[in-house]
Amino acid sequence: MKRINIKVFFTTMLVITISSFIPNIIIFITQGSLTINDGERPSVLIMFVAIFMVIMAFSFVMNKIIFARIKKLNAATKEVINGNYDIVIDEGAKDEIADMIRNFNTMVGELQSNEYLSKEFVRNFSHELKTPLAAIKGYSDLIIDSDLPKKELLEYATIISNESSRLSELSKNMLLISLVDSHVIIPKKDKFNVAEQIRNVLQLTQLEWEKKSLNFELNLQDKEIVSNKEMFYQVWINLISNAIKFSNEGNTIKIDLGSDENKMRFEISNDGNIEPHDITQLFNLFYVIEKSRTKHSSGIGLTLTKKIVNKFQGDITVESKDNKVIFTVEIPIG
């Protein structure tokens, strides 16, 4: 039996029990005796007063238990509809209505947090847009308004091209984040080989890692799965590109891929070090480690990666030990 039902049941029984004594109490007050003469019945007035008092007592208790609290919850809901998220309701007794109030308070807290995050998002995204746009405009103006030698002209054009690519990547990643967030369930209907996907990513990024003379140590278990090919590819391209970007020249990147019937495990490690306070925030949108700013990191790729992995009910972790940065992804399969 539900808690609030128990309260209503016992309240009703209590009111009925008390109400049985009310006529006698009224008789005692009016006649000075708890009994009435043989053959007499309580007057209509006494019965009316008794019924009225029972109804009032029952209404008071029901109002206290249910209606007043629902009215307060309704008023608070209207406040939230009008944009006031700075509101908390006292839960009161422990019953189903208290559960509703607790959930309401949690919801308002989340809305309050989301309102702050949306403002923070606009500020950060505006900043991320402003930097490449300012560079593109600045160097474009220099090219237009100056008689530059060919070497400088080529240098400025290269900067404009790089910043344009950065802007394009930023827009693409934000679009992907929006796409991932909009899907409650990501469709899983593609059959593909994960190891082959990773090898394709390495081939795609070959110019980048060859430029830095990087080496790869691969231990890839070939396995075909049925899931979302595009989303998996995005995870590998983000993590591998991230490792290439933050590896020093001549370093080795190690990639392991293994699986059993229920779970797939991907691990990628490269030389480097991340401070503990940075690790706790690394997957936050627009968070960039201070020493990474010179590498033009936008702080979006890892956020997108985590969102995708979480959509597959998987987990992604990062640790820094023995001068190695290790990302580990575990995703249920099968």
Layout of helices and strands, plus pairs?
Blueprint: H1 3-19, H2 22-31, H3 44-81, H4 96-145, H5 150-182, E1 190-193, H6 194-204, H7 206-211, E2 215-220, E3 224-227, H8 229-245, E4 252-259, E5 263-271, H9 276-279, H10 301-311, E6 315-321, E7 324-332
Parallel strand pairs: 2-4
Antiparallel strand pairs: 1-3, 4-5, 5-7, 6-7
Question: What this model shows, in words?
Answer:
The protein has 334 residues and is α+β, with helices and mostly antiparallel strands. The protein folds into three domains: 3-84, no CATH class; 125-182, Helix Hairpins; 190-332, Histidine kinase-like ATPase, C-terminal domain (Heat Shock Protein 90, 2-Layer Sandwich), CATH 3.30.565. The chain contains ten helices and seven strands. The chain is elongated, with a radius of gyration of 34 Å. The model has no long low-confidence stretch (mean pLDDT 77).
List keywords for this structure.
Heat Shock Protein 90, Helix Hairpins, 14% strand, 3 domains, 5-stranded mixed β-sheet, 334 residues, 10 helices, two-stranded antiparallel sheet, 7 strands, 59% helix, alpha+beta
